[in-house]
Amino acid sequence: MNHSGHTHGMDMAPPPSSSSTTMNNATGGGSGMTMMNDHHMMMHMTFFWGKNTEILFSGWPGYDNLGMYILALFVVFFIAILVEFLSHSKYIKEDADNLTAGLLRTTLYGLRIGLAYVVMLAVMSFNGGVFLVAIIGHSFGFLVFGSRVFKKSSSGQTSDLPPLSCSC
């Protein structure tokens, strides 16, 4: 598939002759695309399937490394579960000091939102496996922590934190 005419404003100079260098502004590339032994790591703009991807960090899980790819999927899965756990847990007692309760609630909120953004950034790798484990992780976390399946009773407030919402 030839994409030579579809750069979408990302004009790039030809890659340097070295087989393991990073293009930067000095070479005119400016894209941060890494050339690794004639294997091109590039950011996808559509969903794709495969283990050759970068998730969250440059070079992670790497190229042709199935074990690290599976580890990355488990990390995304468990972070999604943790987001649901934080969304549906009650830590603060009713008789807690307002200042202490407010600081704890704010800290938990910041942690939950930060982790939710990490999952979102992982999904933005456009890897189909990452997308699926994020959905499965959130769904499983909701099943365990948010639904009535494993709860003994439903009493008033179910969480210390407000529900996750998109203000798009």
Return Rg in Å. Answer: 21 Å
How many strand elements? Answer: 4
Range of helix content: 25-40%
The best one-word shape is elongated
Distance between the termini: 35 Å
What count of helical segments does DSSP give? 3
The string of secondary-structure elements, in order, is EEEEHHH
Mean pLDDT over all positions:
76
The low-confidence parts are: 9-36
**What portion of the residues fall into strands of 2 or more residues?**
5-15%
Largest sheet report: 2 strands, antiparallel
Structural class: mainly alpha
Strand order of the largest sheet: 1-2
From the structure above, extract its key features.
mainly alpha; two-stranded antiparallel sheet; 3 helices; 168 residues
Summarize the structure.
It contains 3 helices and 4 strands.
What does this structure look like?
The protein is mainly alpha-helical and 168 residues long. It has helices spanning 66-87, 98-123, 128-145; strands at 34-36, 39-41, 53-54, 61-62. Strands 1-2 form a two-stranded antiparallel sheet. A two-stranded antiparallel ribbon has the order 3-4. β3 (53-54) and β4 (61-62) form a beta hairpin. The chain is elongated, with a radius of gyration of 21 Å. The model is unreliable at 9-36 (pLDDT under 50).
